[in-house]
Write a structure and sequence with these properties.
Blueprint lengths: L1 E6 L14 E6 L2 E7 L3 H5 L10 E3 L5 H4 L2 H12 L4 E5 L3 H5 L11 E5 L5 E4 L2 E7 L7 E7 L2 E5 L18 E5 L15 H10 L5 E4 L7 H12 L4 E2 L5 E3 L1
Parallel strand pairs: 3-4, 4-5, 5-6, 10-11, 11-12, 12-13
Antiparallel strand pairs: 1-2, 1-14, 2-3, 7-8, 8-9, 9-10
Helix pairs in contact: 5-6
Length: about 240
């Protein structure tokens, strides 16, 4: 299983970090787009033709995680004339994005509502969902393929942990929005909190993402590594991680 970063800037696009949240997971024959933040659709097309997507997962309705689904809709409906792509999303995502299409996605997407504890299969990839500490309804995601486990926290405060999926994930991709001494909103994590939670969940590897555009990422990485008790890695656009 391979994780490709399409965007890692938190809340709005960054002049240095680029696009907002988005990732491509390649596992066997499956190609899954996880989160569609602004700027990620262009980056996606450098790694896979959109017609090859097996499914899309949108973790919540905030634009920095969802808005580029509109571009995929336009391509599928008016360019490729494709229908029925599975889109897994919690309550509120479809309703919010319908405002961009006058309420009508046509048959482009097969919307599949997910909630805390739900499980689905995309080919031979098992996908599980857990409600995080973040409004609106937000789902962390675990993807399992060939006995390898990838956990993506999406956005969350410290009341949720990757341990919700069980200890020992092979890779935890965790938001790390703020410096620990300047947490502006308790619905996000600092790099230190991300490290502490991943360590408590006995994660084998930790990758930090979703950085507030103006923070010192090197300082955040050092903070996260100290809390994790081991070296960590940092998401960058187009960077690939083997899980």
């Amino acid at each position: 299983m391979e994780l490709v970063v399409l965007g890692c800037s938190g809340s709005y696009g960054s002049s240095t970090r680029g696009a907002c949240s988005g990732y491509l997971v390649r596992a066997g024959r499956e190609r899954i787009w996880v989160d569609c933040g602004n700027g990620t659709f262009a980056n996606l097309q450098e790694h896979v033709h959109p017609s090859e997507l097996s499914a899309v997962i949108v973790t919540h309705a905030h634009p920095d995680h969802s808005v580029d689904l509109y571009g995929l809709h336009v391509l599928y409906r008016y360019g490729l004339e494709l229908t029925g792509l599975p889109v897994f999303a919690p309550e509120g995502v479809e309703q919010t994005l319908r405002t961009f299409v006058a309420g009508d996605f046509g048959a482009t997407f097969d919307w599949r509502l997910v909630a805390d504890g739900d499980k689905a299969e995309v080919g031979d990839v098992v996908v599980e969902f857990s409600r995080t500490d973040h409004p609106p309804p937000t789902m962390a995601v675990q993807l399992t393929h060939d006995a390898r486990r990838l956990v993506y926290t999406s956005d969350t405060g410290p009341a949720w942990s990757p341990d919700a999926f069980g200890a020992g994930a092979d890779l935890v991709l965790s938001e790390a929005t703020y410096p620990h001494d300047d947490i502006k909103a308790p619905i996000h994590l600092s790099a230190r909190q991300a490290g502490e939670l991943a360590r408590a969940a006995r994660a084998r590897r930790l990758v930090l993402t979703h950085f507030w555009p103006t923070i010192d990422v090197d300082a955040a990485a050092a903070e996260g590594a100290e809390a994790f008790g081991d070296s960590i890695e940092v998401a960058e656009v187009h960077r690939c991680f083997e899980v």
